[in-house]
Every structure is written in structure tokens, then in C-alpha cells.
Amino acid sequence: MKKVKKLIVGNWKMNPTSLAEAKKLAGDIKKGLRSVKKTTVVLCPPFVYLSSLNTIPNPTLFLGAQNTSSEISGSFTGEVSYVQLLDFKVSYVIVGHSERRAYGETDEFVNKKVRAVTGEGMTAVLCIGESRRDKEGNYLEFIKQQLHIGLQDINKKSLSYVVIAYEPIWAIGAKYAMTPSDIHETSIFVRKILRDMYGPIADDVLILYGGSVDNTNALEIVRDGFVSGLLIGRESLKAKNFLEIVKQIDGI
Ligand code: PGA
Fold first, then answer.
1. 49, 97, 200, 240: which could join 22 in a potential S-S bond, CB 3.0 to 4.6 Å?
2. Which of 8, 9, 11, 128 to mutate to test the pocket of ligand 1 (most atoms within 8 A of CB)?
3. What confidence score (pLDDT) does residue 14 get?
4. Is 225 left (phi over 0), alpha (psi -120 to 50) or beta?
5. What's the pLDDT tens digit per position in 56-108?
6. C-beta separation of 206 from 165 below 8 A
């Protein structure tokens, strides 16, 4: 697999409401990416659209899933297995998004998914992030724990199939993103934890930022926040804005 340097993941969440719109959005994005050279883009549509969008992948554009079961098969009503995703050319899977954790997913549960996804050679986009920043700095311990448990039993080899998406919950679906300097500080902290866990190889892990990214703040977030890319929700549903962001990042 080619080494990814900059990564932009579009999390469509439970949108759009029709297959026709999903195809149009993916098609418009694919067309607009022709001039993009250095940046890898991943689109994560709802499961039901994956089979219709699996013509999308090319050397810079990949399909991702927003979630997976940690089980291969069985009596798990409403779930989709990571093995089932393989048939649809899914190469990235978001795990532990805060909107899933809000339904009760624990760090241990998220860890099972990271192990499942990486074990199949797909990349797990492990989402972490605090719900609030307290003056005492307890949020740092919270982030540390999310990483320690989320990556339990992930060895150095599997680590090459892990991307960390730092998404402070209070900045998701909000009006403003976190400031680039705070993003930089937190990404240094995340990197340090990864280094303590894995040694120098941890420097190869991509750290993304997510939470209210748009075409007015994306460039400074990546450039001044020193992150390797972005996890984008709302703006990934607007082809023009999303492409603008990708091109800005590609130009860095
Ligand atoms: P947002 O969502 O860009 O709409 O804030 C980000 C996310 O939930 O991943």
C-alpha cells in the first residue's frame, strides 16, 4: 500500500436521503479530484450505498464505512460485519465515533473493532476526544485512556493500519472548530502517548482533526495545527466546499 501523507475523510453520517443524491455527490467529488495529487480522500457513506458506490475507488479515492460490528457473523440484528465490508471495496472504517460512543460503546468495545478491522488489512480510523476541557486537565487523562484501551493488543505491524482522529466532542456539529494552536498542542500530546506505547514507529501514525471543519478554517487547521488531515462531517456533503478543502490541503 502506498504511504499516505495527507488524508481527508468525509463522514456522510445518515445522509443523503436518496441513492441518486449519494451517487451524484460521490461522482462530483471523484471528478473534482482529478487534479489532486498528494492527498488521499476517503468517502464514508451509509452502509446501504456502499454497493452502488464501489466503482468509486481509484489511487487517491477510497471507500470507508462509518462503523462495523466486531463479530464476523451471527445473530446480531441490525449489525454489519467487517468481513462483509471487504466485498464492497471498503478500505477504511471509522470506529469509536462519538456519535456511536453516545449509544454506549465503551473503549473496550471500540478496541475489539480496531482489532477486527486492522486484522483484515483495512485501516481503522479510531476517533477519540473529550466532551469538555476542564481547567485541571483531566481531559488529558481521558484521551490517554481512550488511546491505551482503544489500541490494546494492537502490535507494531497492525499499527500501520491505524489512523487517529482527534475530535473534541464539543466541536463536532458546532459553530466553531478548535483553534489551530490547541489542535497542535493536543496532537503533540497524542503523539507522545503513541511514542510511549510504540517507540519511534509511532511517528508514522496519521493524526487527523475533526469538528466543524469548513473551507474557511481547514487550511490553517492542517498547516498551523500540524495534523495530517481532517475528518469532515457536514461539509463533506457539499461537493464544491469539500473539494475546495481537499485542494487547499493538497497545496500545502
Ligand atoms: P462536523 O462533524 O464536521 O459536522 O462537525 C465531524 C464529525 O462528526 O466527524
1. 49
2. 11
3. 98
4. alpha
5. 878 899 999 999 999 999 999 999 999 999 999 999 999 999 999 999 999 99
6. no
- Residue given cell 457539499 in the structure block: 238
Nearest to 160 by CA among 190, 120, 191, 204: 204
212 lines ligand 1 (CB under 6 A): yes
Look at the block and give the residue holding cell 487517491. Answer: 60
Determine contact, residues 165/231, Cβ cutoff 8 Å: yes
pTM of the model as a whole: 0.97
Residue type, 85: L
At residue 46, the pLDDT reads 98
Q: Which three cell numbers stand for residue 53?
A: 458506490
- Give pLDDT tens digits for 139-181: 999 999 999 999 999 999 999 999 999 999 999 999 999 999 9
